[in-house]
Design goal:
284 residues; alpha/beta; TIM Barrel; eight-stranded parallel beta barrel; globular
Protein backbone atom coordinates (compact mmCIF):
# COMPACT_ATOMS: atom_id res chain seq x y z
CA UNK A 1 0.00 0.00 0.00
CA UNK A 2 1.23 3.53 -0.69
CA UNK A 3 1.80 6.20 1.96
CA UNK A 4 -1.20 8.28 2.97
CA UNK A 5 -1.64 11.68 4.61
CA UNK A 6 -2.19 12.26 8.29
CA UNK A 7 -5.52 13.90 7.51
CA UNK A 8 -6.79 10.72 5.88
CA UNK A 9 -6.16 8.48 8.88
CA UNK A 10 -7.18 11.02 11.54
CA UNK A 11 -10.45 11.88 9.80
CA UNK A 12 -11.37 8.20 9.93
CA UNK A 13 -10.21 8.01 13.56
CA UNK A 14 -12.43 10.96 14.45
CA UNK A 15 -15.44 9.28 12.88
CA UNK A 16 -14.61 5.96 14.53
CA UNK A 17 -13.76 7.29 17.99
CA UNK A 18 -10.25 5.82 18.23
CA UNK A 19 -6.67 7.11 18.12
CA UNK A 20 -3.85 6.23 15.73
CA UNK A 21 -0.45 5.43 17.19
CA UNK A 22 2.53 7.52 16.06
CA UNK A 23 5.69 5.52 16.70
CA UNK A 24 9.19 6.95 16.34
CA UNK A 25 11.66 5.07 14.18
CA UNK A 26 15.46 5.10 14.56
CA UNK A 27 16.72 2.18 12.47
CA UNK A 28 15.63 -0.61 10.15
CA UNK A 29 14.54 -2.95 12.93
CA UNK A 30 12.21 -0.41 14.53
CA UNK A 31 10.69 0.52 11.16
CA UNK A 32 10.02 -3.18 10.59
CA UNK A 33 8.54 -3.62 14.07
CA UNK A 34 6.12 -0.72 13.57
CA UNK A 35 4.96 -1.90 10.15
CA UNK A 36 4.63 -5.55 11.20
CA UNK A 37 2.71 -4.68 14.36
CA UNK A 38 0.27 -2.52 12.39
CA UNK A 39 -0.22 -5.26 9.81
CA UNK A 40 -0.91 -7.92 12.43
CA UNK A 41 -3.36 -5.61 14.21
CA UNK A 42 -4.91 -4.46 10.91
CA UNK A 43 -4.47 -0.91 12.12
CA UNK A 44 -3.53 2.36 10.43
CA UNK A 45 -0.21 3.62 11.74
CA UNK A 46 2.02 6.70 11.75
CA UNK A 47 5.76 6.15 11.44
CA UNK A 48 7.50 9.31 12.53
CA UNK A 49 11.08 10.55 12.51
CA UNK A 50 12.45 13.13 14.93
CA UNK A 51 15.37 15.45 14.34
CA UNK A 52 17.63 13.02 16.18
CA UNK A 53 16.59 10.13 13.95
CA UNK A 54 17.13 12.24 10.83
CA UNK A 55 20.62 13.23 11.97
CA UNK A 56 21.44 9.62 12.79
CA UNK A 57 20.09 7.82 9.73
CA UNK A 58 19.59 10.56 7.12
CA UNK A 59 16.40 11.48 5.30
CA UNK A 60 17.18 9.23 2.34
CA UNK A 61 17.58 6.14 4.51
CA UNK A 62 14.49 6.85 6.60
CA UNK A 63 12.31 7.44 3.55
CA UNK A 64 13.64 4.35 1.78
CA UNK A 65 13.17 2.13 4.83
CA UNK A 66 9.59 3.27 5.34
CA UNK A 67 8.70 3.01 1.66
CA UNK A 68 10.00 -0.56 1.61
CA UNK A 69 8.05 -1.41 4.75
CA UNK A 70 4.89 0.08 3.25
CA UNK A 71 5.19 -2.16 0.21
CA UNK A 72 5.00 -5.18 2.50
CA UNK A 73 1.80 -4.22 4.35
CA UNK A 74 -1.84 -3.67 3.47
CA UNK A 75 -2.64 -1.02 6.11
CA UNK A 76 -2.52 2.79 5.74
CA UNK A 77 0.85 4.25 6.77
CA UNK A 78 1.76 7.91 7.32
CA UNK A 79 5.40 9.09 7.18
CA UNK A 80 5.54 12.01 9.59
CA UNK A 81 8.15 14.56 10.71
CA UNK A 82 8.09 14.81 14.50
CA UNK A 83 8.95 18.18 16.06
CA UNK A 84 10.26 20.01 13.03
CA UNK A 85 11.53 23.42 14.08
CA UNK A 86 12.17 25.26 10.82
CA UNK A 87 10.55 25.85 7.46
CA UNK A 88 13.72 24.59 5.77
CA UNK A 89 13.53 21.22 7.53
CA UNK A 90 9.85 20.86 6.70
CA UNK A 91 10.52 21.51 3.00
CA UNK A 92 13.36 18.96 2.98
CA UNK A 93 11.09 16.30 4.45
CA UNK A 94 8.32 17.04 1.97
CA UNK A 95 10.81 16.75 -0.90
CA UNK A 96 11.92 13.37 0.44
CA UNK A 97 8.41 11.94 0.45
CA UNK A 98 7.03 12.66 3.91
CA UNK A 99 3.23 12.78 3.79
CA UNK A 100 2.88 14.73 7.03
CA UNK A 101 4.98 17.22 8.99
CA UNK A 102 4.90 18.74 12.43
CA UNK A 103 6.11 22.29 12.86
CA UNK A 104 6.88 22.93 16.52
CA UNK A 105 6.71 26.63 17.25
CA UNK A 106 5.68 26.15 20.87
CA UNK A 107 8.90 27.81 22.05
CA UNK A 108 7.77 31.03 20.33
CA UNK A 109 5.18 33.59 21.32
CA UNK A 110 1.64 32.78 20.23
CA UNK A 111 1.82 35.34 17.43
CA UNK A 112 5.17 34.02 16.17
CA UNK A 113 3.92 30.44 16.37
CA UNK A 114 0.84 31.35 14.34
CA UNK A 115 2.94 33.08 11.68
CA UNK A 116 5.40 30.19 11.35
CA UNK A 117 2.69 27.53 11.31
CA UNK A 118 0.49 29.35 8.80
CA UNK A 119 3.46 29.59 6.44
CA UNK A 120 4.11 25.86 6.71
CA UNK A 121 0.43 25.08 6.12
CA UNK A 122 0.40 27.13 2.90
CA UNK A 123 3.40 25.27 1.51
CA UNK A 124 2.43 21.78 2.65
CA UNK A 125 -1.21 21.95 1.64
CA UNK A 126 -0.23 22.93 -1.90
CA UNK A 127 1.35 19.48 -2.33
CA UNK A 128 -1.16 17.45 -0.30
CA UNK A 129 0.95 17.12 2.86
CA UNK A 130 -0.73 17.33 6.29
CA UNK A 131 0.47 19.64 9.06
CA UNK A 132 0.51 19.13 12.82
CA UNK A 133 1.45 21.97 15.16
CA UNK A 134 1.73 22.50 18.90
CA UNK A 135 0.41 25.08 21.32
CA UNK A 136 1.47 25.05 24.94
CA UNK A 137 4.76 23.46 26.00
CA UNK A 138 5.16 19.76 26.73
CA UNK A 139 7.82 19.15 29.35
CA UNK A 140 10.82 16.85 29.08
CA UNK A 141 13.32 16.22 26.31
CA UNK A 142 12.73 15.19 22.70
CA UNK A 143 16.13 14.90 20.98
CA UNK A 144 17.36 18.50 20.59
CA UNK A 145 14.25 20.07 22.16
CA UNK A 146 14.13 20.37 25.94
CA UNK A 147 11.49 22.04 28.11
CA UNK A 148 12.09 22.39 31.84
CA UNK A 149 9.21 21.41 34.10
CA UNK A 150 8.99 24.99 35.34
CA UNK A 151 8.50 26.17 31.75
CA UNK A 152 5.92 23.57 30.75
CA UNK A 153 2.67 25.42 30.14
CA UNK A 154 -0.68 23.74 29.69
CA UNK A 155 -2.61 24.65 26.56
CA UNK A 156 -5.09 27.49 26.95
CA UNK A 157 -8.38 26.45 25.26
CA UNK A 158 -9.16 29.93 23.94
CA UNK A 159 -5.66 30.30 22.48
CA UNK A 160 -6.07 26.89 20.86
CA UNK A 161 -9.22 28.08 19.10
CA UNK A 162 -7.49 31.18 17.78
CA UNK A 163 -4.43 29.18 16.72
CA UNK A 164 -6.43 26.68 14.67
CA UNK A 165 -8.59 29.38 13.09
CA UNK A 166 -5.61 31.47 12.00
CA UNK A 167 -3.33 28.64 10.84
CA UNK A 168 -5.68 26.01 9.44
CA UNK A 169 -3.61 23.13 10.84
CA UNK A 170 -4.78 19.56 10.28
CA UNK A 171 -3.93 18.36 13.82
CA UNK A 172 -3.06 20.10 17.08
CA UNK A 173 -0.71 18.81 19.77
CA UNK A 174 -1.79 20.05 23.18
CA UNK A 175 -0.15 20.14 26.60
CA UNK A 176 -2.37 18.60 29.29
CA UNK A 177 0.23 17.20 31.68
CA UNK A 178 2.34 14.70 29.73
CA UNK A 179 6.11 14.98 29.22
CA UNK A 180 8.71 13.64 26.82
CA UNK A 181 11.15 10.97 28.03
CA UNK A 182 10.93 8.79 31.13
CA UNK A 183 8.64 9.85 33.96
CA UNK A 184 9.92 10.05 37.54
CA UNK A 185 6.36 9.56 38.81
CA UNK A 186 2.92 8.94 37.37
CA UNK A 187 1.73 11.82 35.17
CA UNK A 188 -1.50 13.63 36.02
CA UNK A 189 -3.49 14.53 32.94
CA UNK A 190 -5.87 17.47 32.96
CA UNK A 191 -8.92 15.78 31.45
CA UNK A 192 -11.19 18.76 32.07
CA UNK A 193 -8.87 20.89 29.94
CA UNK A 194 -8.80 18.22 27.23
CA UNK A 195 -12.58 17.98 27.20
CA UNK A 196 -12.93 21.75 26.80
CA UNK A 197 -10.34 21.97 24.03
CA UNK A 198 -11.97 19.11 22.16
CA UNK A 199 -15.35 20.84 22.43
CA UNK A 200 -13.97 24.11 21.01
CA UNK A 201 -11.35 23.02 18.46
CA UNK A 202 -12.50 21.45 15.16
CA UNK A 203 -9.32 19.57 14.21
CA UNK A 204 -8.01 16.26 15.63
CA UNK A 205 -6.00 16.52 18.86
CA UNK A 206 -2.59 14.97 19.51
CA UNK A 207 -1.05 13.68 22.75
CA UNK A 208 2.75 13.79 22.97
CA UNK A 209 4.89 12.28 25.73
CA UNK A 210 2.57 9.30 26.09
CA UNK A 211 5.11 6.64 27.07
CA UNK A 212 4.56 5.90 30.74
CA UNK A 213 1.00 7.18 30.82
CA UNK A 214 -1.25 4.44 32.31
CA UNK A 215 -3.39 2.59 29.78
CA UNK A 216 -6.56 3.67 31.54
CA UNK A 217 -5.62 7.33 31.17
CA UNK A 218 -4.78 6.84 27.50
CA UNK A 219 -8.16 5.22 26.89
CA UNK A 220 -9.91 8.08 28.65
CA UNK A 221 -7.94 10.62 26.59
CA UNK A 222 -9.13 8.86 23.43
CA UNK A 223 -12.72 9.00 24.67
CA UNK A 224 -12.30 12.75 25.20
CA UNK A 225 -11.00 13.45 21.70
CA UNK A 226 -7.33 12.52 21.33
CA UNK A 227 -6.84 11.06 17.85
CA UNK A 228 -3.03 10.73 17.54
CA UNK A 229 -0.83 9.37 20.33
CA UNK A 230 2.98 9.56 20.21
CA UNK A 231 5.09 6.72 21.58
CA UNK A 232 8.89 6.67 21.54
CA UNK A 233 10.45 6.05 24.96
CA UNK A 234 8.54 2.79 25.56
CA UNK A 235 9.94 1.39 22.31
CA UNK A 236 13.49 2.42 23.16
CA UNK A 237 13.19 0.87 26.62
CA UNK A 238 12.13 -2.60 25.47
CA UNK A 239 14.46 -2.56 22.46
CA UNK A 240 17.57 -1.82 24.52
CA UNK A 241 16.47 -4.11 27.35
CA UNK A 242 16.26 -7.04 24.93
CA UNK A 243 19.74 -6.31 23.63
CA UNK A 244 21.16 -6.15 27.16
CA UNK A 245 19.57 -9.46 28.10
CA UNK A 246 20.95 -11.23 25.04
CA UNK A 247 24.47 -9.93 25.65
CA UNK A 248 24.31 -10.78 29.36
CA UNK A 249 23.35 -14.36 28.53
CA UNK A 250 25.78 -14.62 25.60
CA UNK A 251 28.67 -12.18 26.20
CA UNK A 252 30.65 -13.70 23.32
CA UNK A 253 27.85 -13.16 20.77
CA UNK A 254 29.14 -11.32 17.69
CA UNK A 255 26.28 -11.77 15.23
CA UNK A 256 24.23 -8.52 15.14
CA UNK A 257 21.22 -10.45 13.83
CA UNK A 258 21.09 -12.59 16.95
CA UNK A 259 21.11 -9.44 19.06
CA UNK A 260 18.73 -7.27 17.05
CA UNK A 261 16.11 -9.90 16.20
CA UNK A 262 14.86 -10.24 19.81
CA UNK A 263 14.94 -6.46 20.16
CA UNK A 264 12.78 -6.12 17.06
CA UNK A 265 10.34 -8.68 18.42
CA UNK A 266 10.14 -6.87 21.78
CA UNK A 267 9.42 -3.57 20.03
CA UNK A 268 6.74 -5.18 17.87
CA UNK A 269 5.07 -6.65 20.96
CA UNK A 270 4.74 -3.35 22.81
CA UNK A 271 3.60 -1.53 19.67
CA UNK A 272 0.82 -4.07 19.23
CA UNK A 273 -0.18 -3.56 22.86
CA UNK A 274 -0.36 0.22 22.39
CA UNK A 275 -2.41 -0.13 19.20
CA UNK A 276 -4.93 -2.22 21.13
CA UNK A 277 -5.12 0.41 23.88
CA UNK A 278 -5.69 3.17 21.34
CA UNK A 279 -8.62 1.27 19.83
CA UNK A 280 -7.34 1.21 16.25
CA UNK A 281 -7.03 -2.58 15.88
CA UNK A 282 -9.13 -3.75 12.93
CA UNK A 283 -9.66 -0.19 11.66
CA UNK A 284 -7.40 -0.38 8.59
Amino acid sequence: MSLVSLTEVLDRASRGGYAVGAFNCHNMEIVQSIARAAEKEKSPVIIQASQGAIKYAGLEYITSLVEEAVREVSVPVVLHLDHGTSLQQVVQCIRHGFTSVMIDGSRLTLEENIKLTAGVVRIARAVGVSVEAEIGKIGGTEDDISVKESEALLTDPEEAVRFVEETGVDALAIAIGTAHGQYRGEPELDFNRLEKINRLVPCPLVLHGSSGVPDGDLKRAVQLGIRKINIDTNIREVFVKAIREILERNPREIDPRNVLRPAREAAEKIIREKIQVFGSSGQA
